[in-house]
Amino acid sequence: MDLNFTDEELAFRAHIRQWVSEHLPADISHKVHHALRLSREDMQRWARILGAKGWLGWNWPVEFGGPGWNAVQRHLFEEECALAGAPRVVPFGPVMVAPVIMAFGNREQQQRFLPGIASGEVWWSQGYSEPGSGSDLASLKTRAERRGSVYVVNGQKTWTTLGQYGEWIFCLVRTSNEGKPQTGISFLLIDMKSPGITVRPIITLEGEHEVNEVWFDNVEVPAENLIGEENKGWTYAKHLLSHERTNIADVNRAKRELERLKRIAKAEGVWDDQRFRDQIALLEVDIVALEMMVLRVLSAEKSGKQSLDVAGLLKIRGSEIQQRYTELMMLAAGPASVPLVREAMEAGWQGDQALAALWPGAVPQAAPLAGTYFNYRKTSIYGGSNEVQRNIVAQTVLG
Amino acid sequence: MDFEFSDDQDSLRDAVARWVEKGFGFERRHALAKAGGASREVLNELAELGLMGLAVPEAHGGMGFGPVEAMVVMEELGRGLVHAPYAAAALVSPTALSAAPQDVQATWLPRMASGEALVVLAHQERAARYRLNHVTTRATANGTGHVLTGAKSVVPAGDEADAFIVPARLSGADHDTAGIGLFLVERGGTGVSVRGYPTQDGGRAAELTLAAAPATLICADGFDALALAADVGIAAACAEGTGLMERLLAITVDYMNTRKQFGVAIASFQALRHRVADVKMQLELGRSMSYFASMKLGEPAAARRRAISQAKVQLGRSMRQVGQDCIQLHGGIGVTDEYIASHYFKRLTMLEMTWGDTLHHLGEVSSRMQDSAGVFA
Questions:
Q1: Residue-range definition of the domain harbouring residue A34
Q2: CB-CB: which of A6, A277, A317 is closest to B366?
Q3: Chain A residue nearest residue B7, CA to CA
Q4: ipTM of the predicted structure?
Q5: In this structure, is residue A107 part of a structural domain?
Q6: Contact A332, A277 (CB under 8 A)
Q7: Chain B residues touching A289 at Cβ < 8 A
Q8: pLDDT tens per residue across span B233-284
Q9: Domain co-membership, A209 together with A318
Q10: CB-CB under 8 Å, B366 with A291
Q11: Can you identify the CATH homologous superfamily of domain B225-367?
């Protein structure tokens, strides 16, 4: 038992750190460090830089052009990117659909889709949730009917994150009503430029456009876009979930945001308020404990001796911590977080004179805090709500 | 970065677990507690297994093992609800004595390792709360040695111990970290009086009064050694708490799958299942921070103290929630003396108040925060 990374792991980390510091554009990391709005172009630019290096698919095996890193190396890469202020890689392509295509797609599909994902050229979206199917995902109703060489898709997906930018979307669709709901679902890749697709924005409570509805009206999808076998889609989707590992906890970003919280608390004068500071200290303990849990999972994976089945715990704890730091940042700014200033989310905005007079100096960093707090209520709802996660955890404990 | 146990560590764990299974059932524990909580006979059995010498250097007749082995043993003692001041006698005291001159070490450590001598740290004073630097007991030079005057409180197994390691002030004000000496005081010496009593968790402790009691100097500038000994004690408490929580959850799960209400096992009710998920969360966070505490014991003092306080905050919260929730999940049977769960709960509760409770250590974390935080910060 040894807490420290090996010399090889430390050398790997140094190599990544060096590369990220040389290649991460300063204007992008500035936005990330200050929680400012990232454009599609910002996200795409970083994805392409990673793609050119072969690291956008950092969790990919060598045979598909990935670096073939082990669990610890992947963690170190994610940590270095997060701490340096790199945007989170939009996961739908490289992290979510690519492993399914690798595991269950045919050779042709792999050759057709994986290069565009690896390079960051093609923007993928996820089509899982529906208005009537949230936590009960298997009840989904979007239909795909086979007619000759195409599937005809009708229905509606929702909560499609950044779907306004999407070029392709991977969908769970119903191809059969026989048997259990899970057994009639197929996994379909759909070109979002296909006639009959409409993307409509959903404005979330903080006023931002992050998620969308995607409507399908007699959309024709070539049958060769079906992954694996018809009616086996649920199995493939579950495979995907089982491959979402420790990054679900997002502890690296939490460490970065804890540093930011401390800077805000100092700037707003509550760092020296013992009652407030103790709340930060509690969060610090929470984050160290979460990081230890993540490291335990990585160690178990590396050793291959035993797997540690704590994915549900990591999701619950990770999301609670994300919500807590956004909450404490808002509370640290206090009244300065009250004014609603949309322009403040843009880089370069320094506060107009009227607002600067109200809250001298504090406005630019305080303005996005309440919005982020509101937005982050999503984290305990998406990806299987925390209550669903508790059901899963209880199942492993109680049977 | 590797959290796997070696084969030797697994064997050590098995040895302790086998002894618990054969020799330390709930009935024996219950009887010992009812009889006042004396623990010397249990310590003697642990000595027969060689465990009292776990942390004593091989040169002094011990095994010279490190923090991970100590953690493994403490987890198993916790799991078995073994009430004996093992950590105090076998882990904390040898750590404090490592600051002593060689002749003092040679006099005491071999006898501690064999189980012949029971030596415990008597550091708490009534008004100190959990502050290690609050020391009002006075040490005065007397010829070639020293005499101590003062009082120490809640000394584990105080009326069974053969000797005490006592922090006493050689100079300075009541809260100075400088000027605190560590001394060894024999229970049978002149001016030493002890008043023992049972504790809430079935163990035993004592109030120790020193009136010009003769003492052997361990270390004149002793605060660092005291702090290290305390941190070893905290890491041990974290590991014991982990074992306690793990077993208490297992007991609770068994009960929930057996107990029927409304015609079904109570394990089927979602409100209870979610509480179990929360308990599992606290157990795993606690275990993670117990590992963290033990693996940070070798760090320089500042980093070590911060890490240990972070761990004690997590374990304090975990132990309280797991204890309370597991009692609640049992219903009425959980609040009876005859049922084992309540004894786990009481031990978990007392452990939170050992070496500083959650608020105390939160204050420590709060005052030691840096710009960056994390496992490797």
A1: 7-89
A2: A277
A3: A1
A4: 0.97
A5: no
A6: no
A7: 285, 288-289, 292, 310, 314
A8: 999 999 999 999 999 999 999 999 999 999 999 999 999 999 999 999 999 9
A9: no
A10: no
A11: Butyryl-CoA Dehydrogenase, subunit A, domain 3 (1.20.140.10)
